[in-house]
Automatic annotation (TrEMBL):
<dbReference type="InterPro" id="IPR002177">
    <property type="entry name" value="DPS_DNA-bd"/>
</dbReference>
<dbReference type="InterPro" id="IPR023188">
    <property type="entry name" value="DPS_DNA-bd_CS"/>
</dbReference>
<dbReference type="InterPro" id="IPR008331">
    <property type="entry name" value="Ferritin_DPS_dom"/>
</dbReference>
<comment type="similarity">
    <text>Belongs to the Dps family.</text>
</comment>
<dbReference type="Pfam" id="PF00210">
    <property type="entry name" value="Ferritin"/>
</dbReference>
<dbReference type="InterPro" id="IPR009078">
    <property type="entry name" value="Ferritin-like_SF"/>
</dbReference>
<protein>
    <submittedName>
        <fullName>DNA starvation/stationary phase protection protein Dps</fullName>
    </submittedName>
</protein>
<dbReference type="InterPro" id="IPR012347">
    <property type="entry name" value="Ferritin-like"/>
</dbReference>
<feature type="domain" description="Ferritin/DPS">
    <location>
        <begin position="22"/>
        <end position="160"/>
    </location>
</feature>
Amino acid sequence: MSNTNGFTAPGMNEESATRTVKVLTQRLTALLDLQLTLKHIHWNVVGPNFIGVHEMLDPQVDAVREMTDTIAERIATLGGVPKGTPKAIVDSRSWDDYDIGRALVNDHLVALDKVYTGVNGDHRDAIEVLGELDPVSEDMVTGQLAALEQFQWFVRAHIESASGELKN
């Protein structure tokens, strides 16, 4: 079954487009989920350093929202159909829902570090696959990974000891 509408970017064959759309769809799901998780944390974080973390998260939400738009538009460019509905997100993700509600800064940031580890690792895997299929999509996801890794660094700076150990 094809993931495209019978057309794709000029110079790209249907099989490569279909495989690229599949990889990008997985990244879209992960980023939509991340965007919602970041906002959830923003609303529910409490305790010491609340305001710093609260204000750190909104720019991340905005950047991830832009990433989802970029990926969705690339999927459409390749003839695919981007799916951003709540049901599509839940049905296509392979991880558990973020389950922390109102909680202290440290609790959320330790959990968020794990979320970023998963998203970033999967982005890295996608880059490897996309390198064989579509250099445009590969470049796009590579640029996103640079920003996502920086966001994880911001999170880790809050949960890292002076000796460089992460709290868990």
